[in-house]
Specification:
The chain is an all-alpha fold. It contains three helices and no strands. InterPro entries: HTH_Psq. Keywords: DNA-binding, Nucleus, Transcription, Transcription regulation.
Amino acid sequence: MSVHRAGSYYGVPHSTLEYKVKERNLLRKKKDSPMVKEISLMQEPITSLDISEESASPVITV
């Protein structure tokens, strides 16, 4: 629904609705922040891998 039509339907001035839409968009959380966190986690070195000498080569059985 357009802002103009909503204003006519609910009886709210157009300028008030525009202000509320802008305010809501500024207060919403950004969806990009989890992606930034994932990228930073990918750049950290992995130090928790436990590689023993006994299983140095993978064994594939059929």
